[in-house]
Amino acid sequence: MADLSALRYAKTHEWSLLDGDVVTVGITQYAVDQLTDVTHLQLPKVGKSVTAAEPCGEIESVKAVFDLYAPVTGTIVEVNPTVEKDPSIINADPYGKGWMFKICLAEGANLDHLMNLEAYQQQIASEGH
Amino acid sequence: MSTLLRTPLYDWHVQHKARMVPFSGWEMPVQYTSILEEHKAVRTFCGVFDISHMGRLVLEGEDAPILLQRLFTNDVNTMKLGQVRYGLLCHEQGGILDDVLVYRLPQFWLMVVNASNRLKILQWIERWKAGYRVTVHDRTFDWAMIAVQGPRAIETHPIAPKLKYYFAELADIPDRPGSQIISRTGYTGEDGYEWILPADQIEQAVFFLTEKQTAWRFGFPVLNCGLGSRDTLRLEAAMPLYGHELNEQIDPIQAGLGWAVKLDKGDFIGRAAIAAKKADPSLPKRVGLELEGKRAARESATVLAGEQIIGQVTSGSYAPTLEKSIAMAYLSPNHAQLGNSVDVDIRGTRTPAKVVKLPFYQRAK
Question: Are residues B126 and B192 in the same domain?
């Protein structure tokens, strides 16, 4: 289990983990619970420039399809080939093997606009009911 | 949320961590653990669905079969005692008001209607029953109903194996004669049964069927299943869903349900209009589509041939058993032939698809 307090969260339910200037991105357990079984992923290609809070792919479950948002601005440097082949890994391990892609931060970009765990938990509590 | 109805199994669902969603005015479980797992359980062993939200209308009185014969597209006069028959209720112009099951039971007739149409159908029956010696009772709330589905399902009830396909039995439970109805019917494309019990008895029945420590009494697991898997199962079996494949503008022939319409049984509401539509080759037809890739075509997605719009998707999903993206759609008849290649617009991307034979999935007999 990843250390959830080390992650930063977008209001669109992506988590981000900063290591140097590379950010690993996945979706949260809450998002997974809402989605139900993931059946298909469309991830951005390596080399693509992405902008914080803009759609960069899609995630599809049996019931519905949702946009994936880039949590930060930068360039895609790696995508997880395993989850593209078997998206059920996202349901099984959203914070570990279920990571989706890595973004190299653009010049001047940062994670300051993202929430910490406590703020994110407050958001999902208010979304809940 | 406060206006949503709850079935007698509501507490059961919540205790078993089901995710509850609004459905046709009811608060229903969409899944317990995983739609894919629940789907697979029904295709391999057995799953249990709460279908108490469906309307259960009892028609009593000597004219009940005469009234039913007027309202129902299928023939009730040829039904044996205990038989269950699928058919439509149509309005005068032939559009479908609902798709229903009619049960011929000792003492009364039962009609099981869609939750979304229960009040409409009650009003419809009320409108036509004048002059007939018939009383109608809505038993939706004092009876509950579950569907037990899967290749091993009938092994979980002593009466089920004795019933022929689409037959039912009205049975006693202790101190309450005639208070359970069990029928060899379902909406998943698998064998199984549907079981009506008094509302206060249903939780005990589901407990008996599914609770972990007792599940293996049958020699196989029995899973709680939600409406999510019910939808993917019925889609693979190409069973229409009211509000998607069926509505008041669609007639039974277009919907591919001509087999449930007996034009030669005598007059019934909508008969003349349906007969006329049957002769009209220009109406869109319900077809099955198999799409390339795994992206699902959702309801309302446009179907194209070149630049021409030729129809619309009514239901679509990733099909867990087939591991393919499938959909049902209405297509103009000159594009509806089996094997025909079309494109489906999935959120702006054209996805190649083929018209395929329905059902997508058929169980081994």
Answer: no
| Order of all β-strands in the sheet with B135-138 | B84-90, B96-104, B109-113, B55-60, B135-138
Interface predicted TM-score (ipTM) of this complex, two decimals: 0.80
Are B78 and B201 in a shared domain? no
Q: What is the pLDDT of residues B298-314, one digit of tens each?
A: 999 999 999 999 999 99
Question: Last residue of a domain, which of B138, B173, B202?
Answer: B138
* Three-state SS at A124: helix
| Closest partner CB to A40 (pick from B34, B36, B318) | B318
**pLDDT grade for B173, boundaries at 50, 70 and 90:** confident
Check which CATH number belongs to the domain holding B76 and give it. 3.30.70.1400
Structurally, at CATH architecture level, domain A4-128 sits in Beta Barrel (2.40)
Could you give the residue ranges of the DSSP H alpha helices within B184-302? Answer: 202-210, 212-215, 227-236, 271-278
| Closest by Cα among A109, A87, A107 to A97 | A87
Q: What is the mean pLDDT of residues B76-100?
A: 98
Which residue of chain A is at minimal alpha-carbon distance from B32? A36
* Token pair in block for residue B46: 């057995």
Q: Across the interface, do A36 and B298 touch by the CB < 8 Å criterion?
A: no
